[in-house]
């Protein structure tokens, strides 16, 4: 059994699973209090992400047209 998953195909956008993994990895680090994502890398709309994140206790801030900051 391989220790890594196959390399993703170029151009594939991130989904909820990747967003969840990014946030868990960032917030599980000692001393980390925020995470940032580039919306152009996701197949999910900004409004969907913000709504779900806020339901789960994150504070979400827009940074320009394409970035969200989670605290």
Q: How is this structure best summarized?
A:
The chain is 31% helix and 17% strand.
Set down the secondary structure blueprint.
Layout: H1 16-27, E1 35-38, H2 46-55, E2 60-63, E3 67-70
Antiparallel strand pairs: 1-3, 2-3
Q: In terms of per-residue confidence, which ranges show pLDDT below 50 for 5 or more consecutive residues? A: none
Q: What is the overall number of helices?
A: 2
Structural class: alpha+beta
Biggest sheet, strands in spatial order?
1-3-2
Q: Please state roughly what percent of the residues sit in beta strands, choosing from under 5%, 5-15%, 15-25%, 25-35%, 35-45% or over 45%.
A: 15-25%
Mean pLDDT: 92
Question: How do the helices and strands follow one another from N- to C-terminus?
Answer: HEHEE
Task: Please state the overall shape, judged from the principal axes of the Cα atoms.
Answer: globular
Number of strands: 3
In which range does the helix fraction lie? Answer: 25-40%
Termini separation (Å)?
37 Å
What is the radius of gyration? 13 Å
Tell me the major beta sheet.
Answer: 3 strands, antiparallel
Describe the structure.
With 71 residues, the chain is of the alpha+beta class. It has a domain at 34-71. The chain is 31% helix and 17% strand. It contains two helices and three strands; from the N terminus they run αβαββ. A three-stranded antiparallel sheet has the order 1-3-2. The longest helix is centred in the N-terminal third of the chain and has 12 residues, at 16-27. The radius of gyration is 13 Å and the shape is globular. The model has no long low-confidence stretch (mean pLDDT 92).
């Amino acid at each position: 059994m391989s220790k890594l998953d196959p390399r993703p195909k170029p151009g594939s956008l991130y989904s909820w699973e990747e967003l969840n993994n990014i946030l868990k990895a960032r917030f599980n680090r000692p001393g980390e209090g925020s995470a940032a994502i580039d919306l152009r890398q996701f197949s999910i709309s900004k409004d969907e992400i913000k709504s779900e994140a806020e339901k789960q206790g994150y504070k979400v801030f827009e940074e320009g047209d394409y970035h969200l900051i989670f605290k």
